[in-house]
Description:
Layout: H1 4-33, E1 43-49, H2 51-67, E2 71-77, H3 80-93, E3 100-104, H4 105-113, H5 121-124, H6 134-137, E4 140-141, E5 144-145, E6 148-149, E7 155-160, H7 161-166, H8 173-179, H9 183-197, E8 202-203, H10 212-220, H11 237-251, E9 255-256, H12 263-270, E10 276-280, H13 283-291, E11 299-303, E12 321-325, H14 332-343, H15 346-356, H16 382-391, H17 402-419, H18 423-438
Parallel strand pairs: 1-2, 1-3, 8-9
Antiparallel strand pairs: 3-12, 4-5, 6-12, 7-10, 7-11
Helix pairs in contact: 2-15, 17-18
Amino acid sequence: MMGKKRIIYVLVACLMISLLATACSSNENKNTAAGQTESGKKVKLVVWTWETAKDGLDLNMEAFKAKYPNIEVEFQNMKSTDLYSKYLITSNTGDAVPDIITVESTNLAQIVQIDSLLDITDKVAPYKEKMSPYKWEDATKDGKTYAMPWDSGPVVMFYRNDLFAQAGLPTDPVEVAQKIQTWDDYYQAAKLVKEKTGAFMYGDSKTNSSNRVFESMMWQRGLWYFDDQGKVAVDSPEVKEVAEYLIKMQKENLVFDARANTDQWGNGIRDGQIATVVGGSWHDAIIENQYSPSDNGKWSVAMMPKWSKDDKYSGANQGGSNMAINKNSKHPEEAWQFIEFMLGSEENQVKMMSEAGLFPAMMIDNNPAIDEPSTYFNNQAIRKVYAESLANTYPLAYTSDFPMANKLMTDVWAKVFLNNASPEQALKDMADELRSKTKRE
């Protein structure tokens, strides 16, 4: 039998082991709560993104590192077009890198369709009601969600006060919104601008259009390349109506002939040749920082025109982005911690909005930052206009076939202006090609 002293020694040893295990467990819980990984080991996340998106993320990286000291983040910057083509190849190989990708809404549905992203349905559930509803549709397939919305692109009309004044148009945003309520009002204003100043109303290429204005005009009316049943609708009478309007603007020489967001287009802005930019909110940073930094106070913002004064929706969307996790990532939980920290926090989203121009998909109408005046934009609270546009945007999705449709639409303009094709025939040809290539009706 075991002696009494030996029994006591064994009991003491067991007690010490138990206390030590409890202490370790307690420390592990504290470390996890402090933002450490569950294993306590360093984890490295690779994030594929582009420069302007990284500028926004950088604003919150110090706070992220403080909360998650064991998560290292490596950003790999590239052009968005290169990112998509590279990821399409990578995803087919089952590669675990990148862990996270930034995806523009224009390409999101296409990426979702190839089944390369992690299902994060349960993780995003607490945020479903906090984001603009239309942002979720392209992130969803078969009822499951594969991306977290980041920024949106509410469309507004940026305009030059000096050119409007020279043309005899009002310059106060409220008065401008009253004067230019419809696209016909916009056309009449364009003629005045051209006659009185020699400037053009907006910039777009006849034969190499990005289709941004065209798509914004469609979106505002609830029109798209495809209808609600997924059928090809680009040859509908309503879409033809929009196309004919833009062709009229081009033929009457009211448009600066340069593809939007190119250097030539930017030079037109810098040189005072373009009176308005009807585009996503992110154009404020492009105008202020890239193309027109010396024109402080010369620009203001109003809602984009509507087709008819009685139309229900006054806003539209142009772009915006999202973040998603590669389903082959070796660190999916840490990847979600990064995404949730950046995009699930109103404070962090507001910081990226205020300092990087990324207007969030998160609905932040009551945040004080919305009311902050912009020195560059004539001390106007321009984000209030963005919020109004976002709140009045038709809930429409880009769809997985958008990249193809967008490219074919550029060809439509080329046929009209180079081959003298009628808008009706060019759109019919496009619709037939879409039906053939997508197998849609």
